[in-house]
């Protein structure tokens, strides 16, 4: 396969050298969980201290799924023959044989894991020996005067379509025209792109704080999007942030993670969190469901049959950035790879 073909395949399956959210925290307790992310089959579990571990979901003995096995804390035991593998992908023990030649050997790929804001993130890289980059996301996910809720949904589409959807500002005025937060503003607009240190800001010219009027795309040690959407006065006014990530599952499926965040403190925070759970969360899910239905129903090979116009310069620019990143990553691979 040529470098060009390899880069095309990489951008479709997911860029590497990045942190990706792979599961909400509540989905991993004592039992090991088998997942597919970036077309890689992985098992995730918690050790005795509650820390997340992740390795290939494959017993190095005969290829049975470790996710079907037992959690022994710092290691998993295969259900098939009891082979034990630790969180570094090293065979810790082969109970069925007194002395086994692959005991103590690293036989599986392991994934650095961190847990932030109610989600588990894994580091996906080409070279496992290189330490992961520092975890970097927008400030709103960290600062004390912000409070938020995580929303995750599985979409039956390539992850790039989900990113395109967020970079498409104008769909808010049409697809979400009856939404509690996206029903205002002009249905015509001119768009502009502003480069940033880590990506770009795509925005409507002359309109801000009215609808879905701007979005930032960032490529740091993660790939993320950041935007604000205003509340109508009947829902308290002001605006809330959305910090989003899209994680490839395979070429035809992805997960979308959105943190809905509002700057608030004290009694105002308590009021907003109560209001969100009791009045707003269902409305937000409705908006996300509208996006999912449209994106999943796009015609086959939609990207190759498009006719884009000026409103699409944001998503076009992001596509190019991702394709350039894929080419750079492929060119950096050892020739043997």
UniProtKB/TrEMBL annotation:
Q: Which UniProt keywords apply?
A: 2Fe-2S, Dioxygenase, Iron, Iron-sulfur, Metal-binding, Oxidoreductase
Q: Does the keyword NAD apply?
A: no
Q: Which intervals hold domain Rieske?
A: 19-122
Q: Which is an annotated GO molecular function term of this record? A: dioxygenase activity
Identify the CDD domains for this entry: Rieske_RO_Alpha_N
Give the PROSITE patterns listed for this entry.
RIESKE (PS51296)
| InterPro entries on file | Cholesterol_7-desaturase, Rieske_2Fe-2S, Rieske_2Fe-2S_sf, VanA_C_cat
Q: Which PANTHER family match?
A: 3-KETOSTEROID-9-ALPHA-MONOOXYGENASE, OXYGENASE COMPONENT, IRON-SULFUR DOMAIN CONTAINING PROTEIN
Q: What is this protein called?
A: Aromatic ring-hydroxylating dioxygenase subunit alpha
Species this protein is from: Cupriavidus oxalaticus
């Amino acid at each position: 396969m040529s470098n060009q073909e390899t880069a095309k395949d990489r951008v479709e399956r997911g860029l590497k050298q990045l942190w990706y959210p792979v599961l909400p925290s509540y989905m991993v307790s004592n039992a090991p969980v088998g997942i597919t992310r970036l077309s890689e089959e992985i098992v995730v579990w918690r050790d005795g201290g509650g820390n997340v571990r992740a390795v290939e979901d494959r017993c190095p003995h005969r290829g049975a799924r470790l996710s079907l096995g037992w959690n022994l804390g710092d290691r998993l035991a295969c259900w098939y023959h009891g082979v034990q593998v630790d969180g570094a992908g090293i065979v810790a023990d082969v109970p069925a044989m007194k002395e086994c030649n692959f005991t103590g050997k690293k036989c599986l790929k392991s994934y650095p894991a961190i847990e932030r804001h109610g989600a588990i993130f894994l580091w996906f890289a080409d070279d496992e020996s290189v330490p992961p980059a520092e975890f970097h996301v927008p400030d709103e996910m960290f600062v004390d005067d912000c409070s938020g809720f995580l929303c995750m949904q599985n979409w039956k589409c390539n992850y790039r379509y989900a990113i395109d959807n967020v970079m498409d500002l104008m769909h808010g005025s049409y697809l979400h025209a009856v939404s509690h937060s996206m029903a205002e503003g002009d249905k015509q607009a001119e768009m502009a792109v502003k480069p940033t240190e880590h990506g770009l800001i795509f925005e409507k010219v002359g309109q801000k704080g009215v609808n879905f009027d701007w979005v930032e795309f960032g490529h740091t040690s993660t790939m993320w999007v950041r935007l604000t959407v205003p509340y109508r006065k009947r829902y308290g006014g002001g605006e809330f942030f959305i910090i989003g990530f899209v994680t490839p599952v395979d070429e035809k499926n992805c997960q979308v993670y959105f943190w809905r965040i509002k700057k608030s403190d004290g009694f105002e925070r308590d009021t907003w969190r109560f209001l969100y759970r009791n009045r707003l969360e269902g409305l937000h899910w409705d908006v996300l469901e509208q996006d999912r239905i449209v994106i999943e129903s796009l015609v086959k090979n939609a990207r190759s049959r498009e006719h884009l116009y000026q409103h699409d310069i944001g998503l076009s620019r992001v596509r190019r950035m991702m394709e350039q990143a894929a080419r750079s990553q492929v060119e950096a691979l050892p020739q043997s790879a």
